[in-house]
C-alpha cells in the first residue's frame, strides 16, 4: 500500500489529457486500483462509485491507492461504468516520464533550486531584533508621552503644594490622595475592559479630554478656595463643596492618567516596537521610563521655580494655560502616531467591539458592569501565564519604608539629618533609576528577559537587606552607618527600576493584545490596594521608633518577590517555554521565529536518512 507522491502527481499533471474532456473533471489514476473502504462486508456490497453529482470542476487529492500488480481490464471490471461526462483515464507508471522518487540523502544529486536555503546570520538576527517595527510611530509616541506626562507631573506637584499653602494640616492632602488611590482600585478594571473593546485613537482622545477637563476643574476649585476661604478648621475645609468637587475631580483625573499610561506602556508600544523584537521592545520601555523620570523631575522643578517668583494663584493659572494648550497637541500627536505606523492602531482586538462598548457605557447598568468588570478582570488576571511576574511587581509596591518618599524623608528629618543630605539622597535615587533604564536594555540583550528580571529582583533584595542590617546594628545618626544605609537604598533603585522595565516587557510579551488594558488595569488596581495597606500600616505605626517594623515588611516583600520570580523561572511550564522561545533561557535550536515586515519566517532543520559516505 502507498500514497500518490507529490512528484508523481506533478508528473501526471504535466502529461497530455486522454481524449476529449469537455467538463474538465479528472481523476488521474496511474494504472492503480482504488482501495475499497475498510469493512468486513464482501467486496460486492460496497456502493458503486458515483461521480454524476460532482460539480463541473472537481479535483481529488491525497487519494490512497493499492500498488499491487493488476491488469487494466481487472481495474475497470471491479466498478460499474462511469458517465461519459467525467472520464477517468488510466495511465501506467511506466508511461510517465521521470517518475522516480526525489532522493533526500546527501549523496544524491539535486537541482540547483534545492541546494541552499538562505539563513540569516547572527548579526542580521540581532539587527532585526533591535529594529522597531514602526520607528517613526515610536518617535511620535515618545513625543506624546513626554508632553502629556510633563503636564501631568507638573499638576501632581502643584495641587499638593497649593493645598499645603491653603491649609497647614496634612489631612486635606491625605484625603485627596486616599480617594485617588481608591478610585484607581475600583475603577481601573472597568476602564481597562472598556479600553480593550474600544478603538484606540478615540479612546486616547477621550481620556486626554477627561484628564484635561478634571485638571482644570481641580485648579479652579483651588483658586476659588485661595481667593475666598479664610482661616478655618480642618473639618470645616473638608466639608466644603469646593473640596468635595476637588476630591471627585482628582479621583477621575488620576484614573484617566493611569489609563493613558497603561494604554501606551502595555499596548501601543508593543504594536510599534514589535512583540517578536525583544531588544527593540526593551529599548522602547527604557526610553519611556527615562522620559517618566525626567518629567517627574522637571515638572516639580518648574512649578517650584514658579512658586518662588509668583503668587500661587498666578502659578495655577499658568498651569491651566499649559493644560489647555496641551490638549490639541496631544490629539495631533495621537493622529501622527497612527499615520506613521501605517494605521496599526486602527486594528481591532475583539470581534464585537461596538455591542460590548454600548453595554459598558449603559448608565443603567453601571453598577452591574462595574462588578462584572472587576470579577472578569480578576479571573483573567489569575489565569495569565506570566502571573508570578505581575505579582512580583505588586509585592514591590509594599516597599514604602526603604525607598525615597514621605516616610524616608520623615525618618531622616527626625534623626536630625541635614536637609542637604536628604536632597542629595533623593537626587541620587533618581540618578540610579535613570541609569537602570540603560542597564536593563543591555541585560535583556545579553542574558534575555527572564534572567534580567531575576537579576534586578535579587540585587534589590540583597541591597535592602544590607540597609536593614545597618539600621538594626548601628545608629544611622552617625556618619558612616548613615552613608552605608543611604547608599544601599540608593543602589537598590538600580534593581528596582531594572525590574520595572523588564517586568513590563514580560507582561507585554505574555498578555495578549485583546486583554492588555484589562490585565494592566487590574495590576494597577491591586498595586493601589497594596499601597493603601502599607499606608494603613504606616498610620498605625505612626511613631518613628516603629520604622524598623516597616523596614522588615518592606524587605520581606521584596525578598518574596525575588523568590517567587526565581521559582517561576526555575520550574517553567510548556506554555511558558513556547511563549519565551526566543529567550536564551528557553532557546530552541531547531526553529528560529522572527518577525520581519509582518511575516513570520520559520526555519526548520530537516533530517533525512540516507546512505553515508565512507
Short key terms for the protein model shown above:
614 residues, mainly alpha, Growth Hormone, Chain: A, 3 domains, three-stranded antiparallel beta sheet, two-stranded antiparallel ribbon, 20 helices, disordered C terminus
| CATH fold-type name of the largest domain | Growth Hormone, Chain: A
Q: How widely separated are the two ends?
A: 33 Å
CATH homology superfamily of the largest domain: MFS general substrate transporter like domains
Number of strands: 5
Count of helix runs: 20
Can you describe this structure?
The protein is mainly alpha-helical. The chain has 3 domains: 1-101, no CATH class; 142-383, Growth Hormone, Chain: A (Up-down Bundle), CATH 1.20.1250; 388-614, Growth Hormone, Chain: A (Up-down Bundle). 64% of the residues lie in helices and 3% in strands. The protein contains 20 helices and 5 strands. It has helices at 6-14, 72-77, 122-129, 135-166, 171-196, 200-228, 234-238, 241-273, 278-309, 312-340, 353-360, 366-383, 387-396, 406-414, 419-447, 449-473, 479-510, 516-540, 547-570, 574-579; strands spanning 2-3, 33-34, 64-66, 591-596, 599-604. The protein is globular. The model is unreliable at 1-79, 93-99 and 588-614 (pLDDT under 50).
Question: Summary?
Answer:
This protein is mostly helical and 614 residues long. The chain is built from 20 helices and 5 strands. Strands 1-3-2 form a 3-stranded antiparallel beta sheet, with no helix packed on it.
Amino acid at each position: 500500500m502507498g500514497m500518490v507522491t507529490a512528484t508523481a502527481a506533478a508528473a501526471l499533471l504535466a502529461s497530455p489529457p486522454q481524449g476529449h474532456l469537455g467538463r474538465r473533471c479528472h481523476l488521474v489514476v496511474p494504472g492503480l486500483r482504488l482501495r475499497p473502504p475498510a469493512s468486513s462486508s464482501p467486496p460486492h456490497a460496497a456502493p458503486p462509485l458515483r461521480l454524476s453529482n460532482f460539480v463541473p470542476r472537481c479535483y481529488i487529492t491525497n487519494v490512497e491507492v493499492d500498488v499491487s500488480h493488476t491488469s487494466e481490464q481487472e481495474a475497470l471490471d471491479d466498478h460499474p461504468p462511469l458517465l461519459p461526462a467525467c472520464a477517468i483515464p488510466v495511465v501506467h507508471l511506466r508511461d510517465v516520464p521521470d517518475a522516480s522518487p526525489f532522493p533526500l540523502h546527501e549523496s544524491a544529486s539535486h537541482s540547483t533550486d534545492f541546494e541552499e536555503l538562505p539563513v540569516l546570520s547572527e548579526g542580521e538576527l540581532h539587527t532585526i531584533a533591535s529594529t522597531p517595527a514602526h520607528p517613526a510611530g515610536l518617535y511620535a509616541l515618545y513625543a506624546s508621552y513626554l508632553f502629556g506626562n510633563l503636564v501631568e507631573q507638573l499638576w501632581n506637584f502643584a495641587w499638593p503644594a497649593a493645598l499645603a499653602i491653603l491649609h497647614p494640616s496634612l489631612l486635606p492632602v491625605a484625603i485627596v490622595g486616599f480617594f485617588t488611590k481608591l478610585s484607581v482600585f475600583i475603577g481601573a478594571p472597568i476602564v481597562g475592559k472598556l479600553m480593550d473593546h474600544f478603538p484606540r485613537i478615540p479612546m486616547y482622545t477621550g481620556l486626554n479630554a477627561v484628564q484635561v477637563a478634571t485638571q482644570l476643574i481641580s485648579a479652579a476649585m483651588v483658586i476659588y478656595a485661595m481667593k475666598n476661604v479664610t482661616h478655618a478648621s480642618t473639618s470645616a475645609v473638608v466639608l466644603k463643596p469646593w473640596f468635595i468637587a476637588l476630591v471627585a475631580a482628582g479621583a477621575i483625573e488620576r484614573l484617566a492618567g493611569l489609563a493613558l499610561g497603561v494604554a501606551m506602556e502595555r499596548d501601543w508600544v508593543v504594536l510599534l516596537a514589535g512583540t517578536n523584537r525583544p531588544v527593540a521592545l526593551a529599548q522602547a520601555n527604557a526610553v519611556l521610563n527615562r522620559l517618566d523620570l525626567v518629567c517627574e523631575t522637571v515638572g516639580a522643578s518648574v512649578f517650584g521655580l514658579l512658586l518662588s517668583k509668583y503668587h500661587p494663584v498666578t502659578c495655577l493659572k499658568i498651569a491651566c494655560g499649559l493644560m489647555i494648550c496641551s490638549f490639541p497637541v496631544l490629539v495631533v500627536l495621537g493622529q501622527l502616531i497612527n499615520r506613521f505606523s501605517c494605521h496599526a492602531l486602527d486594528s481591532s482586538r475583539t470581534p464585537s467591539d461596538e455591542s460590548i462598548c454600548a453595554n459598558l457605557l449603559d448608565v443603567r447598568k453601571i453598577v452591574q458592569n462595574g462588578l462584572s468588570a472587576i470579577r472578569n478582570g480578576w479571573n483573567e488576571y489569575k489565569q495569565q501565564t506570566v502571573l508570578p511576574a505581575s505579582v512580583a511587581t505588586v509585592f514591590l509596591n509594599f516597599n514604602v519604608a526603604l525607598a525615597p518618599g514621605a516616610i524616608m524623608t520623615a525618618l531622616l528629618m527626625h534623626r536630625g539629618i541635614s536637609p542637604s543630605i536628604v536632597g542629595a539622597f533623593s537626587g541620587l535615587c533618581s540618578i540610579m533609576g535613570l541609569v537602570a533604564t540603560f542597564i536593563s536594555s543591555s541585560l535583556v540583550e545579553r542574558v534575555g528577559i527572564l534572567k534580567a528580571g531575576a537579576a534586578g529582583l535579587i540585587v534589590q533584595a540583597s541591597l535592602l537587606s544590607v540597609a536593614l542590617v545597618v539600621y538594626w546594628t548601628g545608629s544611622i545618626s552617625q556618619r558612616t552607618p548613615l552613608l552605608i544605609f543611604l547608599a544601599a537604598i540608593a543602589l537598590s533603585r538600580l534593581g528596582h527600576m531594572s525590574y520595572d522595565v523588564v517586568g513590563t516587557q514580560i507582561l507585554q510579551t505574555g498578555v495578549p493584545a485583546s486583554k492588555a488594558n484589562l490585565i494592566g488595569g487590574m495590576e494597577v488596581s491591586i498595586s493601589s490596594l497594596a499601597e493603601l495597606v502599607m499606608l494603613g500600616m504606616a498610620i498605625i505605626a505612626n511613631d518613628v521608633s516603629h520604622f524598623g517594623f516597616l523596614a522588615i515588611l518592606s524587605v520581606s516583600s521584596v525578598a518574596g518577590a525575588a523568590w517567587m520570580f526565581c521559582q517561576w523561572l526555575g520550574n517553567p511550564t510548556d506554555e511558558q517555554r513556547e511563549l519565551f522561545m526566543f529567550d536564551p533561557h528557553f532557546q530552541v535550536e531547531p526553529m528560529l521565529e522572527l518577525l520581519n515586515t509582518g511575516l513570520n519566517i520559520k526555519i526548520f532543520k530537516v533530517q533525512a536518512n540516507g546512505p553515508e559516505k565512507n
